[in-house]
Input
Amino acid sequence: MRLITGQTELSVSRPSAVTLGKFDGLHRGHRKLIDKVLQAGEEGLQTVAFTFSRPPKAFTEGKAEPVLLTNREKRNHMERLGVELLVEYPFTEAVCHMEPEEFIKQILVEGLQVKRIVTGPDFGFGYRRRGNVELLSQLSAVYGYELTVMEKERDSCGQVISSTLVRKKLCLGHVEQANALLGYPYTVTGEVVHGNHLGRTFGMPTINQIPAEEKLLPPNGVYTAAVEIDGTIYRGVSNVGYKPTIEGNYPKGVETYIFDFNRDLYGKTLDVQLFRYQREEQKFASVEELKAQLVRDVEESRRFFEAQK
Output
């Protein structure tokens, strides 16, 4: 996959099919748009996902809410889906005040050679979001592109699937429901760093990761989990939180025990998939109590995976 980020001058080698949006989470509704673009790719058009760049510091400065996907995670997902070009366009002051037709003409038509636009019914763009699907339809004949408006994807209860709904489910700890909306397990990506090595002393070594600050984490607690390592999925159990039983101050992180695995993973960037909330994080009176509970957590996680078979 080709990535264009931080550039206002766009150039492509051939006409394209483009879908536009924030794509936070890349949930089932987003997949519906991308799948339609990928179908256009079978006709020879270059497949493009267009989004505005979101600097991570926007979260730390209090200018944005936590995200379901970091920039890095979103890029990985787009590549796995088969998108040929991902555009992360800088949201400058000039772009903020750009009139909708100028956005279509300058960025989509001249920059991306768009021949097909795929979007949802409520897509808004341009200055004060004055652009909409009606305008896109009106200008399709002028600029020579085809417009496809996809209906919203809904869950089994009839609710429209949205990033807001996924975020709400995660914040309540309803990971299984969030995963059903996403169409894949909610994933936290991070580099494996050194912890206190306590688990190793009683035969249950763990990996520790400190997620990006802008990443939305579910409530502190223990989760049925799996880890992707060199293309292979290993089952395990994860703790999201601050390690309250251990003395000292720790940043909020994800600590995972991987079943039947004992390789050195320090420095690797790994994906931890969360499947189900098991229990809240708690402080134990001793390390022995912690170990005993971890054994029970492992047994519960194994039972979950066995039931999935």
